[in-house]
Specification:
Length: about 260
Amino acid sequence: MTKVAIVEWPDGLLPGGAEWETIRREISGAGADLLVTNEMPFGHWLPKAKGFDRDAAARWVDLHEEGLQSLKQLDVPSIISSRPVMGVERLANEAFALEGGRYTVLHHKHLFPAEPGWEEADWFRPHIPGFETALVGGLRVGVLLCTELMFSNHARDLGRKGVELIVAPRATGENRFLWQTAATMAAVSAGAYVATSNRWQPRDSRNRLFGGGGFAVDPAGQIIATTQDTKQASAFELDPGFPERAKVEYPAYVDESYARGAWD
């Protein structure tokens, strides 16, 4: 068994300080083997409006670079998160793993929303192609960053590549049902667990964007762990035998050869 922690961390989170110390203690108390954070967790959310600002982007990159050091100090063997990294023309949203202080690139986000509050299409470009898998904490893992979770074809492809866990860091609004539906379809189509963490703002915040709600779904589509406003970390036990069984059960086993044009 592997114990996986999910979170809802506040918008505007800074490395160090009293708020981070509370988070550090909560993560330590969870006793997890693997932590999944929300999407680009440090600082206030930047791409709220159109108009890429290189100076503001560089400051966000620097803040997440500082945040890496704080993440490395958490009492958890493996961490999966994402951060902005600077490219030639735009940022990339880079998912990564930290294990024993070692940094491994996992994925660059490919699919971006384009609406007020989430004008990511104007701020980001992927620099690394594809949806690949990696071993993290002894598990075969794939990453779908936020909006990518909405497209279950990518989850399906990750399932064919043998993933046991799909990790989905998010920065999403208050419609938790929408995201729970997407995660459930990802889990059953891949035959894998899905663990997703979200950014959070208090309900009385002015112009509230982020609704919190980290949760986990098992390969049968059952929600097995959730966070709350008063409990910003939750954990579940991942049974590696469950995905193996799920991949030979409906619907994960279904042959898509004809749908892919293999008529011969």
